[in-house]
Structure prediction request, 629 residues.
Amino acid sequence: MTADALELLRSQREVVVDAWHASLRRLPPFARVPRQETLRNVQRCLDGMVAILERGDEAPMRSFAEDLADLRFATHFPMHAPLWAASCAVDGIVAALEAVGKAPSPGLLPQIRTALDTFNRYFTDRYASRMLSAAEDAFRNLLEDATDAVVLLDERHRIADANVAFAVLVGVADATEVVGRPLADFVSDADADRLTAMLDELADEPSVGPVRMRVEPPTGQPVRAAVSAHRSHARHRHAVVVTLRNVTREERDMARSVQRDHLVAVGRLAASMTHELNNPLTWVMSNLQQARDDVARFGGEVEATVGDMLDDALVGTRRMAAIIRDLRGFLGGASAEPASYDPRDVLDLAVRIAGVHARGRLRVRLDCPPLAPAVGFPGRLSQVFVNLVINAIDATAGRPSPQVVVRARGDAERGGYVVEVEDNGKGIAPAVLAHVFEPFVTAGKEGGTGLGLWISREIVEDHGGTISVDSRPGWTRFSVFVSNDGGGKWRRAGSAPATTPPPSARRRLLLVDDEELLRRALARQLRRTSEVTDVASAEAALEILAEQGPAFDAVISDVGLPGMDGIGLWREVSTRYPDLGRRFVLISGVSDFEGVPEDVPCLRKPFSRTELDRALELVAGEADAGATG
Prediction:
């Protein structure tokens, strides 16, 4: 039978080729293919068939089929078209049989079909291989161009492939270095179980996440990543596709935004509260002091009884004033410029503010020797230590003998000071301990934002310092080092000691304040040593000056006046009466003295009579200098 087929293909080669080619050209896909090309392909395919039938050699057919597959794939030719063309060989065989006037033997067509099947097999395998290679190239390009880290996992959750972004994220030189390793190797111990549980969920869900986790490179800084996993539908070794988006900066920005909004809200509330409290507290203190001075003149039993009552009342008002000053100092962390401060004052303020949180359950102990003056932002540092002390107080809840100790010492070698906040609370879990300074990580406090310690670290590092923690069950200690000059960023600022000039003769004073009770209280107090003219507005003060002239030794004006404010009054007086403009004292309950020169005394309500007397002595010196000059 084989001999019959070979004889036919050899003896009728031209007939077979012509009929085969004519049938092929009628197929639509080949209408645009050059005739010489299709004719050459028919001839090569026929040669391959002869080699198979003659000696069982598939090499010529394989070479032709693979060459044709490469060509057709490169020109985006439909894969099925060459298969149709090969089947047209049957038309050539039929034409050859008709030319010789013979009927086909029973084995001829099966032999031809076997040869054509060989072509089909090699062609489709090669074409499919080229398609798969192109798809993998496209996938690889997509993978490498992705800005997020992408890893492909096998069924055991081991890395089968990864892109450059993942290599950068985990700190390796080449992504091939991570192939074969479990993805869990690159997240924190605390997150490893969460990652495993997340990947197991893919048995029931097509995708899970994103879940925020801590990625820990073998070298370099840990980062926060939003991790998402998707079940792969590809029929190859990649069972899961995982994406990891670096959200470290996003979380930092979000934390700063949350903290900024929180501080703005608290600052507005506190400013409003202190403003509303300062005026009544100032006139209460003034009246109490006046009453105490008057009672002292009676002597005897009246002074002993009423005087003690007034002394107690004065102590209470001074304590209220101290609390308001503490609150103002605590909120002063937003100041734009670093200032000289005493670290002991910062710690004392923090302990006083945070100590209220204990509600009498414990007493925070402060051990702080004299420390060298420092330059920085004392309000911000107060926030750090208030946060640490409050955390320590919370940690001791439920302990039989709660203790919180704040210790400080100088560190001359590093040019700063060290503060330790220690408690005998429950301790911090090891899984949390390594991450307590990251945003949105809480140490177990209900309702906490997870921002306090992160912000504390930011503030400390901004001051050229460091913060660390050590903890075990029943004991925790936070250690803070603060540089005295911000690590060299800030010039050490010095402050000259204040001098108090000797008291002068009876003066003429102009008092301007729209709060009637406060104005009356201050006027009553000042009239013991001075002649006082009091008015309720800047406009009224200017009228007085226009009528009586600038024959006042000093002007005392509130800043928050209706209409023209106190600073506007000072500027107007300085323009009209330059000498009197240098004898101004400004007072305010909201501490807004922006634009006022440093040599103009400014008092923040509530203030004591001593502070007011000192300010008047300072400006009276200007009047005395003018009189003698």
Remarks:
- The two ends are 140 Å apart (CA to CA).
- The first strand starts at residue 149 and ends at 153.
- The chain is about 50% helix and 15% strand.
